[in-house]
Amino acid sequence: MSERISDITGGASAVHSEKISVNKIRSDHTEIFLKAEGFSGKILGLIFFALFWNGFLVVWTTMAASASFLFAAFSIPFWAVGLLMLSGIFTSIFGKQWVEIKRDAILIRKKVLFRTAEQSIPYRDLISIENARQVGGKKTAKLLTSSSADSGLLSKIPTICYDKTALKELMFAEHLSKNDQEWLVNYLNEQITPLLKFVR
Asked: Among residues 179, 124, 177, which one has the least CA distance to residue 146?
């Protein structure tokens, strides 16, 4: 039984989205599918900027290499940024994600064309699921709470914080709109919180 998130009732406010579908596989297993962003006006703007950035680097590196190899080597960090930009655009266009809520763990699976990566996090290791600012380094997380206040300039991304010893973090749903991200974090917290009493 597949549902659109606008049809789901409960504490999490319903948000209509073509990017999210919820499939109840069993009473204790729910799969949430996050569609790829695909081509959009925002993506086309990023493609243009990335092509301009990398095109400028080709010209600059060629000119710098004619003067000195050491001078050309100065452009390596800028090439890394340009390639990361292209990789991020490619992932946004083609990347699909699944979030599975199971009886004893949450599973995040990401797929870009033929490459799949997944991470299963047992509830006993879970610290929080929240929209968190990504500022490098570890953050202190509140237990299973989502923060929707948007102060500061950095955007928030749904993040699972787990492993109390190493304080690991896993970002997901990066391509969704802010409203969809907030809905997803609230929905996950509502579904998972009752399950924690069985593992703690």
From this structure: 179
